[in-house]
Amino acid sequence: MSPTYIARSSAVAARRLGDEMVVISALDSTLFSLSEVAAVIWEAADGRTPLEQIVRERVCSRYEVDHPTALRDAEEFVRALAAHGILLASEQPIEAPPARAAASAGGMQP
Amino acid sequence: MLTSTTSGISNFRAFDPPGLHPEFSRLGLTIEIGGLALRVRAPGPEFWSLLAARYSNFVRPESRAEMEFELFAAPPGPLSAETELQVRCENGRWLVSRGEFRAAFDLRSRRGQLACIPNPYSVDTLLRIVHSLLLAPAGGLLLHASGGIRGGRGFLFSGVSGAGKTTMARLAPPDVQVLTDEISYVRNAGGGFRVFGTPFAGELGIQGENVCAPLAGIYLIEHGAANRLEILAEAEAARRLMRNVLFFARDAHLVSQVFSTVCELVRRVPVFRLEFLPDHRVWEIIQ
User: Fold this and answer.
1) How do the residues of chain A divide into helix, strand and coil, expressed in percent and rounded to 5?
2) Which tens digit of pLDDT belongs to each residue from B182-197?
3) Which residue in B has a C-alpha nearest to residue A101's C-alpha?
4) Does A110 sit within 8 Å of B7, measured CB to CB?
5) Distance from CA of B4 to the nearest CA of A (A)
6) Considering the entire predicted model, what is its pTM?
């Protein structure tokens, strides 16, 4: 099975507020709240480290969870965020973030 | 389950109109909100008078305008069914449309035009959009909220339509200066966040007072069976406040700036969830 590489999209902004990591998609203003474990994966998503390695070194070493279970949850998390375009997933290392999204249609009504 | 989903002034350069035609000056009106002045030129004296009355608390002829807009009466014709506001940026030029409302402006040249049915609501829309775009990089935002100043401190009551924004403004005791019952103007003024009055009126139908104060608290309001106050954690406060921010452009950089402002806001200003009964006693717990 090919490794999965993950990287944060450049079209997002993220801030840690208290115990939570809050991420916003600048494309559609959708907000995401990441759990503690998800935030660990998010912060490690550098485009060069395989997901399996992130889970083994950053998750399983810190939390009481077996590797298959943690990897399955992590893959589900990656799929969900990738579907919203805020996390990039590839079978190849991701070298550079994509160009910034262009300004487009409106958001909230005045 | 690792995630849960929930659903920019200090450096403005003053605008110095070069060689204006006398008619331009005669029908121009400088409207200053949140310390930022925009000048509009009405297409005729009747509309000018309407605007002068509508924005009377905010007309500042002596202020130097940061941007200037020429208004045109939209040509008569059947009303458009278009209801969704469209905002887009092409080569630095912002284009805004909804039905007969057509605006174009450039934040760099600080000039723009608006073609609309001549009513104050069209100008309200223009002002809200332009202010929201200018506030984003300056650490400010427009919020769906009523507000007031009491004892030199500013309070905001934020919520969706029907949550009770106008009710809170109506219930304000006599010693409260009402800032607005619909759209509040918040700016990070260096030493902290300040809230300003706006002319943007909701059901109350009157413009706010043109005053400002340090922002002391934000209340996310909803009708309830009793008056009940609960302070919110920063993340929850940010999530809920973001839903009530007025922002129109899906520009990644600007959205990030607004998000950053909201995060800073919840760190520096307490945010409460307020359930309330619609009577005057609710103001007893605002402090």
Assistant:
1) 35, 25, 40
2) 999 999 987 899 999 9
3) B252
4) no
5) 5
6) 0.84
